[in-house]
Amino acid sequence: MGFDSAKFVTSVTDDKKCLLCHGVLDNPVRSACGHVFCSGCILPWVVKHGQRPQKCRPLGPTDLENVLPLREVILNLKVKCEFFDRGWTHAVRLTDLIRHTQRCEFKPVACVNPGCGQLVPKKDIYLHETVTCPCRPIGECDKGCGLVLHLHTLADHDCYQALKVLVRTQEEQLKELKEKLALVSTKFSKKEKSLLEQVSALNRQLGEQTEQFNGTIKDVK
After folding, report:
1. pLDDT digits (tens, 9 = 90+) for 132-141
2. RING-type domain: from which residue to which, for each copy (predicted)?
3. What pLDDT does residue 27 have?
């Protein structure tokens, strides 16, 4: 399937478009009669029909040749960033688009603060999570539970209830780990013994934390 011509900064001429999907050529290949297609478009067609889409003569996969010079020309065309509408105004080469998209400072990133999840441009995520987010952490509770408090739950915070929820969550995690351990333990070889030991250590750690929080609950209560 070819590239969407609307993503390109300048109009793309028809000689750079696939005769099947009409998009800008992706990995162009050429038939003996000179027609050019995206490899991903023409190969399934050939397998199914055994002839050119123009029905001018029979065609097999071995009758197609890569058009590398044309491919290089297309890869060097300028395209709009995926996040163009979010503020990125510079054009990038098609060949650099994937790498740019991964690093673009306007790429939306989900806030990690519990209860938020808002999508924020990558360049602003730190400021959002630490300063402007209504669910941002504001420090540890000084009333005895020691849990991290978040702005949106501050008014309703109850040490006893919060610790109960935490213990219940950890107990569920512990149960899930034990079930997974029981399910896969028979499949592990001696080489994977260390992994089992790590899981067991995590089980013990969660168990100790649960006991610790249960003790804290009693103190708070």
Report:
1. 999 999 888 8
2. 18-56
3. 93
Pull the structure tokens for residue 173.
Answer: 């995690």
Q: List the structure tokens of 53.
A: 């889409």
Residue 188's pLDDT is what? 59
Structural tokens at position 38: 């995206």
Residue 218 pLDDT exceeds 70: no
Distance CA 28, CA 6 (A): 19
SS3 call for 103: helix
Comparing C-alpha atoms, which of 109, 157, 112, 161 is closest to residue 136?
A: 112
Mean pLDDT of 206-221: 68
Task: Kindly write down the DSSP assignment for every residue of 143-210, as one continuous string.
Answer: TTT-PEEEGGGSTT--HHHHHHHHHHHHHHHHHHHHHHHHHHGGG--GGGHHHHHHHHHHHHHHHHHH
Q: For the chain, what is the largest distance between any 2 Cα atoms, rounded to a whole number of angstroms?
A: 86
Quote the DSSP letter at residue 50.
S
DSSP string, 117-160: --EEEGGGHHHIIIII-TT-EEEE-TTTT-PEEEGGGSTT--HH
What is the phi/psi pair of residue 149, to 5°? -95, 150
- Give the model's pLDDT for residue 11: 92
Residue of 7, 6, 40, 47 whose CA lies nearest to 21: 40
